[in-house]
What we know:
The structure holds three protein chains of three kinds. In chain A, strand 16 and strand 17 form a beta hairpin. Chain A contains 23 helices and 32 strands. In chain A, the strands form nine sheets. A seven-stranded mixed sheet of chain A has the order 3-4-1-14-11-12-13. Chain A has a five-stranded mixed sheet with strand order 8-18-17-16-9, with helices on both faces. In chain A, strands 19-20-28-29-32 form a five-stranded mixed sheet, with helices on both faces. Chain A is an alpha+beta fold. In chain B, 56% of the residues lie in helices and 6% in strands. Chain B is built from nine helices and four strands, in the order ββαβααααααβαα. Chain C has helices spanning 19-29, 42-47, 83-88, 90-95, 97-104, 109-114, 117-122, 128-131, 172-178, 196-199, 280-286, 293-303, 316-329, and strands at 12-14, 33-36, 55-58, 68-71, 74-78, 182-187, 190-195, 218-225, 232-238, 249-258, 261-270, 277-278. Chain C has two domains: 11-60, Uridine Diphospho-n-acetylenolpyruvylglucosamine Reductase, domain 2, CATH 3.30.43.10; 69-122 and 167-329, Uridine Diphospho-n-acetylenolpyruvylglucosamine Reductase, domain 3 (2-Layer Sandwich), CATH 3.30.465.10. Chains A and C meet through strand 1, helix 3, helix 9, strand 30 and helix 21 of A and helix 13 of C.
Amino acid sequence: MAERLVGIDIAPPDLHAKITGRAKYAEDFRAPGMVFAKLLLSPMPHARVRNVDARRALAMEGVIGILRADEVPSREGPREACLTDTPRYEGEPILAVAAVDEETAAAAIEAIEIDFEPLPFVIDPLESLRPGGPNAYVDGNQFSGQDGWSDLKWTDADFATIDDGGMPDPSCPVEWTKGDPDSAFAESALVLTETIVHQSLTHHPMEPRSNMCFWEGDTLHAFVSTQSSQQTKFALAGALDMDPENINLVSEYCGGGFGSKIAGTTVMQIPALFSRKINRPVMLRITRYEENYVGRARPGFQTWLKMGFLESGKCNAIDLIVVQESGPYGAGDFNTAGMIADLTYTPQNMRFRAVSMYTNTPPKAAQRGPGGAQIISMMEPILEKAGRELGVDRFEMHRMNAPGPDVEFGPRNATLTSVHAVEALDQGRELFDWDAKLAMSGQRNGSKVTGIGIGLSPYTAGSRGRDGMMVIRPDGKLYVHQGIGNLGTHSIADTARPAAELLGYNWEDVEIVWGTSSRGYPRSTVQAGSQTTTAHTRANHAAASDALRKIRAVAAATMGGSPSAYRVDSGRVSGPGGTMTLGRIAERAIAMGGEYSGEVLPEDIHAQTVPAAQMLAGEGLMGIARDNYGGDGNIYSWVAGFAMVELDTETGVVELKEYVGVTDCGTVIHPRSLGAQVFGGSIQGMGMAMTQRWVFDPQYGVPFANRLYTARPPGFLDIPSDLKWGAVDIADPQDPVGAKGIGEPPVGAGAAALTCAVADAMGGQCVCRTPLTPDILLAEIEGRPIHGRLDQHVG
Amino acid sequence: MELWRRAANPWGQDVLIGVSWDLMWAAVVAAGLFLAGHAVWIRTRKEEAHDGPTDVPAGIPEKIERHSFAARAFHWVMSIAMLLLLITAFVPVMGWQFNWVELHWQAGVLLIATVVYHVIHSIGWMDFWSMFQLGVSEGIATMKHILSPKAPAPPKAGKYPFDHRMYHHVIVVVSLSAIITGVLMMVRIDTPFWTRNPYLFSDSTWGVMYVVHGLSGVSLILLVASHIYFALRPEKRWITWSMVRGWIDREHYLEHFDPAKWVVTDGAMKSADGGGSGAIAEAAPSARRED
Amino acid sequence: MAKIRDMIPAFELFQPTTVADALEMLDEHREQAWVLAGGLDSFDWFKDRVKRPSAVVDLGGIEELTGIRDVENGLEIGSMTSLTAIERDERIRSAYSIVADAAQHVATPQIRNQGTLGGNVSQDTRCWYYRSGWPCYRAGGNTCYAAAPQAMNREHCIMGRSRCVAVNPSDTAPALIAVDAKMIVENNGGPSVYDAEDFFIGPAIDITRMTVMEPRDLLTRIYIPATWANADFYYEKIRDRGSWDFQLVSVAAAFRRSGDTIEEARIAVNGVAPFPVRLDAVERLVQGTTGDEATANAAGELAIQGARPLRHNEYKVPLMRNLVRRAVRSVA
Lengths: 795, 291, 332
């Protein structure tokens, strides 16, 4: 009997290489004749290049060439090019220089005489909304594909209200309403109106987005840092306007992306184009400093929230306005924020308004739980505040407002495949010992006050309809071809496990094929939105089912009897005609050809899968299928975070004493990895709540927190050593495996548990601004002024 | 030698940030050379014979008031302010570090106060235009005489000889440049009166302002050094003393001034603003107020 | 000139093995020389290409600069002794625990392994305007960007400003002042001894330096006199994160008591001024008291007299007050 592969801890196949340092990230590759490129970054937040004189640089010994903006693809409107002569943020790449070594390339960059015309810029979106305020673009601050540019300003009356601390009634490009919020507010026993600011913060993956490229004839070999593998090949081909099949994309390891490298990166185009121009391999090593600029950031929110509650504590109405700081090229967080607010508090009556404002700050992009993490971190303390004011236990507030399986949310009444948020809360209550902790809430020990809080955080956790592809070769092993990326989450292996289990394989006989596109990938998801676990356990399950069918058919054809009478286990197939090894079955499948060896492919597989399958045809028994399991509703996972903190009222320092995260993410495939995701995401959220931020000088529009020590992601001493996690472990009923993704929701849970716990320690007073650094908390405690309370990028 | 100090502003644009401190050293050296040169030159210059006073107009007293107490007070307070400004501006650059900023702007405020006082005083209580007579022919004659001892001595002056007037005008221009730019630069430092704001003007405009201020300061090294030098020279001490005592004696008056241009009448020591020395005032006849 | 970061420009590296050689090299290269201790401050500057010395004198090979020695009436610490060694040294931990405590609060274990005591007290300020290579007063320019009306100055000073509003970043500096340490600075002309509090200078004295050390100088030893051995110590550093962070405000205090009464005290605060501030008046106030609540409160209030916060660092005033209070309270 083969071992069970789902629900147990198995060391991932890349572990050894990572621990021994043999893992090769994009920056570790070399090619004969390789040169190094360095970037010239814009010194201004918005400018136009008037003149570039690179003669001195190009005359330097060892300098190979220069790549300018007019040599790279560009698009109209607020869209990013990999190089530009109209930079829209300080740090945007203007040009690249290649030289035999980086020192020479750097010296050459310094030797370039470049003249910029400074243009008006905006760092804080509210400034751009003010009448007469500056815009991030010369042509306006709003863009639509149909109407082009426009200039959106709120009224003086709106800003008079804002400046008085009230909730404005502005016009917003995005607006939807459900139910009848006004009537519902009239029926509310309690209405809370708050102004809340959530900061923008960078992704800061450990591995910067370095890339190396070279050409062999028409074939591009690209060594990139990306979250997704197969989809990045297509993204790069699209950007370069070339045949994807002429790209060999190598992406064996990725040192984190958190949403900033979903289908690769914009800068990956630079070495590809530069290499073609100078006909030499080009390495573009992105430094930490450069990563800070080109590495993306989570959009900040300035939010006005009105929340109505019935006597029972049930939220019955929400009015939410979100101003999003979107950087120069936009981001979609605000849409998700509205959806998640509706989903988490199920008010039935909701009005959502949002405006995405272009700003001259480094580009924004999805960051782990985009939109959801921010809004949960901002709204959960308000929910708890309502509990305090209504005299309802805060745990009960979360529980009663959490959705059930029949939930409908968002403007189009979206539904869920399954939801066990309440079970996650209940399990967390036990694990955290909420009742005992509640007694400690507000207790003072010298200058320290204990606070506890809960954050319940949902996020998308899956998609459907991808392709799975695997080959059983004559060596008897199962080769699972994974087009997803290997960004450290173990999904590269874990999504193959249910398939291997279905085929009765022992894990030692399973080979994961990944990292180099020339080895053949099926159509895969982008590794984002926590889709991968669901999408590819399903797709691989489908392919394994196809393989199982074919094994039985080959066995029956070879040994006689009915295919359905054959059982597969531990590398053998046994039935009425006898037993064969799967290696022999693979040989037979090759001999039989047709669909068995992949010579004939299913008609419904994606066109992107076909070339890879054709390449692998004839090498063994091929299991290949599209995920046709179907399903209704959105796939969401949940994490309930529980935190206990001590706030030192004399210093404003918060110490996290305990944290518990319990997730509803369906079937648990890999417990240890799941725990790491719950902790990792939660800690990322804690950094968001407590320490990380951008800081810009408003006069010059230049950011400062551009080193890890100034950006302040949380460190080892910022968390207690005994974090706890749990999982509801209830399979999603619409899924053959039942697993849902887990990457995103812990961030909101970790952040919100802390924003709530800190508010609790402050006696229920919500500072309504993150990060909750000691200066803000102490100033609040002392009643001293906090300047720029509504501003973005202060810190 | 560098003339300007330049720097890349936060946007990487090359902007002026001030004069080069080489200019300070150049001014110090130039002042030294000028003083030494002048000292040597004056020794080698043939002594001119001056005719003594021939016809002493009637009614010229022994002591003739040249500077009222108010004018002297202004001069010395302004001198202190100016010296403080120069010391606080340049000594730290020369290497002796101390907390100069507060003292510098406070001395600057004192200078401005004295200048305002002086302007009001000179317009309201002094013969304002005596300082602003053009005197082209007097100037040419003076220059010729300086260049060649053979040239005839320039005609005797009114109360303010040509060189005094020229020095005054130069110092007015230079000081006003320093004051105007200095006042604007005070926006950039903390004072009890306002919060600093370095962004009132663009980086390049500030750069020009710093250069003007710096050039004025460097010029003042030369001007003040030469002024002190001449004040200390033996042949000029009689007039230096007048800035202490307020009066000059009749001999110097008749030797250096044209009584027609600087009319001295009985009661010259009686100060219009009451600032004169009572004891002398009683003894001295009055001169027409021209100071 | 276009700006580029994270790439150290070439320099000539000197690796002397004796202090005498090092001093000779410093004398030879004067303003062009850069003294390299642990490199945590230096390499940041070099990587950013903001400071570009032509000659770097690496002290790492000078054995005589490393180690903690018993000397008459105290301890002598070589300036190149690692912060980890100071943190772990039994003599320091038992008699001058405040110094070990302060060393332990520096950044991270990795940085403490590499960082030295001499480097920690000699490091440059972390004002981000200055570190970004902006032409501020400290960098020889004509502006303090950090004190502009809208500037981001949460980490900057609330006292002791003079055009520049940066703060001294050293964790060990206030502790060394509290134990009345002496800094031995040598150059080719011989050694000079400075009280720790005089070793640090403010912008009013010289806006381009944080310490008395001039180009030819080398901090060779730090002497801790036995005067304050085994006193009652209090050290606290407030920072945004649990590790790898400079202080927002830190306090270091030493109290010598007779029974319950404070006979003598030395208290220093860092993170509030361009130099670590010794609180003489507070020291006098607490002498003869028991460090009771009323004294502690009065000490806190006295400490912040004259504090002038900037736009974003108002919080430092109560933070400093509270830390001084806590330090005094710790005695009672």
